Amino acid sequence: MSSLVGPDEDDPRGKPLVPDDVQDAIRTLIRWAGDDPAREGLLDTPSRVARAWKEYCLGYGEDPSVHLSRVFEEVGGYNEIVLLKDIPFQSHCEHHMAPIIGKAAIAYLPTDRVVGISKLARVLHGFARRLQVQERLTAEVADCIWSHLRPQGVAVVIEAAHSCMTARGVRTPGVGMITSRMMGTFLDDPRSREEVLRLMGY
Ligand SMILES: Nc1nc2c(ncn2[C@@H]2O[C@H](COP(=O)(O)OP(=O)(O)OP(=O)(O)O)[C@@H](O)[C@H]2O)c(=O)[nH]1
Ligand SMILES: [Zn+2]
């Protein structure tokens, strides 16, 4: 029986098997789009597409907050903004399942503990590798850091291009969507907010 979780033991490259009904669904889509799923070039496409989608959606298999469980408390009393900016990410919009490609800036004002900076990017990717709207992605990243790190403030700004607007529909290339979520100090204190936005380059 085929399974999406285990490796394909017949395949030396260990690719996961794709269930027949998933492949059939992609064949139906190819046919509906106007091509012949039985032609040679498309024979392996259904399993490739399915595996690609499993990879785009890896976030469903993880709890991004686990990345924030390892904290460092010996930071020499550092209590200023920590900012990771220009973090590239990819997601897919839940309306069209089309790529969202952008960058994020994630900042927090620590209380008594910090996390390894790579973990902020891991949290972002954990939520981005799902079907999303940009507003929810922004909120989920900020809320996760807020509730698991308990800092004085969190600021997340995401800027992205939506392929559903550039490659189809309104077909307006070059347009960017910006979303932000400010929490704690960055929400309450205009000067902290200004400072973090300036450091982010906005
Ligand atoms: N707010 C928000 N809207 C999004 C996001 N991603 C895609 N959309 C929009 O979702 C909307 C879906 O609108 P619908 O009218 O249901 O779908 P549609 O007929 O395909 O719309 P068009 O894209 O205008 O052709 C579109 O306006 C998209 O631009 C997102 O992350 N946030
Ligand atoms: Zn879309």
Automatic annotation (TrEMBL):
Binding site for Zn(2+): C93, H96, C164
Domain GTP cyclohydrolase I: 23-200
Pathway(s) of this molecule: Cofactor biosynthesis; 7,8-dihydroneopterin triphosphate biosynthesis; 7,8-dihydroneopterin triphosphate from GTP: step 1/1
A GO cellular-component term linked to this record: cytoplasm
Gene3D superfamilies associated with the record: 1.10.286.10, 3.30.1130.10
Sample GO molecular function, one term: zinc ion binding
GO biological process: one-carbon metabolic process; tetrahydrobiopterin biosynthetic process; tetrahydrofolate biosynthetic process
One Pfam family in the UniProt entry: GTP_cyclohydroI
InterPro entries linked to this entry: GTP-CH-I_C/QueF, GTP-CH-I_N, GTP_CycHdrlase_I, GTP_CycHdrlase_I_CS, GTP_CycHdrlase_I_dom
E.C. number(s) listed in UniProt: 3.5.4.16
Catalytic activity: GTP + H2O = 7,8-dihydroneopterin 3'-triphosphate + formate + H(+)
Keyword set, alphabetical order: GTP-binding, Hydrolase, Metal-binding, Nucleotide-binding, One-carbon metabolism, Zinc
HAMAP family: FolE (MF_00223)
Subunit structure, as described in the record: Toroid-shaped homodecamer, composed of two pentamers of five dimers. Homopolymer.
Family per record: Belongs to the GTP cyclohydrolase I family.
Protein name as annotated: GTP cyclohydrolase 1
Gene this protein is translated from: folE
